[in-house]
């Protein structure tokens, strides 16, 4: 077994035929959906941008909930501490 065959996982001719068949099928599907390689790259890029923004939006919402709750809890805590200080 040659180093090239070991690297490719099969004989070079068989690998070439497999790659041609898979490339044809992928090209056929992409053409059917009207996609181009750049559309795929832009889609992947947009996915990671949306994921990044979603993460920060989640943190923003989480901090907003904390501040909203603190607007009630902190004054109530201070009033309870003042009320219990007299005892």
Describe this protein's structure.
The radius of gyration is 30 Å and the shape is elongated. The protein has helices at about 5-10, 10-35, 35-85. The mean pLDDT is about 90. The chain has about 90 residues and is an all-alpha fold. The longest helix has about 50 residues, at about 35-85. The protein is about 90% helix and about 0% strand. It is built from three helices and no strands. It folds into two domains: about 1-35; about 35-85.
Helix content: over 70%
Query: Strand count, sense and closure of the main sheet?
Result: none
Low-confidence stretches: none
Q: Can you give the mean pLDDT?
A: 89
SSE order, one letter for each helix or strand = HHH
- Beta-strand share of residues: under 5%
Structural class: mainly alpha
Number of domains: 2
CA-atom Rg in angstroms: 30 Å
Shape: elongated
Distance between the termini: 90 Å
Number of E strands: 0
Instruction: Please count the helical segments.
Output: 3
Key features of this structure:
0% strand, elongated, 89% helix, 87 residues, 2 domains, 3 helices, mainly alpha
Secondary structure elements and pairings:
Elements: H1 3-8, H2 12-33, H3 37-85
What's the quick description here?
With 87 residues, the chain is mostly helical. Helices cover 89% and strands 0% of the residues. The protein contains three helices and no strands.
